[in-house]
Amino acid sequence: MPALRADARRNEQAVLDAARALFEQAESPSDVSMDRIAAAAGVGKGTLFRRFGDRDGLIRALVAERTGPLLAAIQSGSPPLGPGGPAAERLLAVLEAVIDAKIDTVALSLAHESGTASPYTAPGYEATHAVVSAALRDLNVDGDPDIAAHLVLAATRADLIAVLVRTEQRTRAEIVDAVVRHASALFGRTPRGT
What topology is assigned to 1-53 in CATH? Predict the structure, then answer.
């Protein structure tokens, strides 16, 4: 792929910055339209479509930008989030990190998970699923660890996080604690700190 011109790079960054800010302020993903993003970025709407293809492409770019450091930490960082530590600790650290990321980006995560492509085939989900599945396999969980990983990660879906945070007014700590406790029950361990 050819390198972007300096002005194109600036425009792309302006679009990403504007979209990120709009999603951070949004109550609903539908509050963030391509028109609003273009206006906030100070570019024409066509610039968004030329660079990102469509709204889903822009959302995928934002999610990749946001989750890149998290995925790097999960795949090659230090334990407990990265490889090399006990499987139970890693599983719990990954779940906590994913929940934190979703809480921090609720509207963006909702937009991503409800977009045209399945969230279950997104690179970030597939990478996280592989780590959770491997941890469950290492913990000798009864049944299929791949299916169990999907079930555990279902507790981190953005639509559930949105209801817990916005409707039920649950705190980050309450959500993380509940998910960690239920995930721990799958492999017969006591969650950390109890």
Answer: Arc Repressor Mutant, subunit A (1.10.10)
Cα-Cα-Cα-Cα dihedral of 116, 113, 130, 98, to 10°?
A: 160
Contact 67, 101 (CB under 8 A): yes
Cα dihedral sign for 101, 103, 106, 110? positive
Write down the domain spans for the chain. Answer: 1-53, 63-186
As to burial, measured by CB atoms within 10 angstroms (0-12 exposed, 13-18 middle, 19+ buried), residue 20 is middle
CA dist 102 → 42, 112, 140, 171 (Å): 28, 11, 28, 13
pLDDT digits (tens, 9 = 90+) for 87-125: 989 999 999 999 999 999 999 999 999 987 788 888 889
